[in-house]
Amino acid sequence: MRIRTAEWFETKVQYDKVQEDGMQKKVTEIYVVDALSFTEAENSIIEEMRPYISGDYKVKNITPANYHEVCFSDDSQDDKWYKAKLAFITIDEKTEKEKRSIVHYLVQARSTDTAQKAINDVMSKAMIDYETASISETKILDVFEHSAGKSNDGSSKSSSKPIDEYE
User: Which among 6, 13, 46, 155 counts the fewest CB atoms within 10 Å?
Assistant: First the structure.
């Protein structure tokens, strides 16, 4: 499991997709991109989708994600994306009462159970108590990380380096 912290945007792309029966159908799909602005998010999703789309397409919506952490799996069977809502538990020193801070993660997994296992693995390295409030499957099809550059064939090279290492 690899974790990437960044500013993420959920994008909706509408295009004509060829179905299994050979017919074209207009679909709207959700993808996540790593970007610093709406403009960069739009440019990123257009570049990422260009090789897969023929004909007209529209970026229908761009929304800043409510998560900053994305957990990528190395297992090829983990083909779905889940949103995990965690409650970090701290003790207020003045009142000595429990305080819960909600944090969201996006997790690549094959099922809710494997998403929970991934969260447990990630959080086992943390020094904070937490509870899993919810884990739900999303309609996100893929996550595209910031591209450090282009290769000789014009395709993107993804990098998991933090953004400040690109300077």
Answer: 155
Q: How much of the chain is in helix, strand and coil states, percent to nearest 5?
A: 20, 50, 30
Residue 87 near residue 133, CB atoms below 8 Å: yes
Show me where the domains of the chain are located: 2-161
In which region does residue 2 sit, left (phi positive, over 0), alpha (psi from -120 to 50) or beta (all else)? Answer: beta
The pLDDT tens digits of the residues spanning 22-65 come to: 888 899 999 999 999 999 999 999 999 988 887 889 999 999 99
Long-range contacts for 94-99 (Cβ within 8 Å, ≥24 apart)? none
Cα torsion angle, 16, 50, 6, 78, sign? positive
DSSP state of 129: E
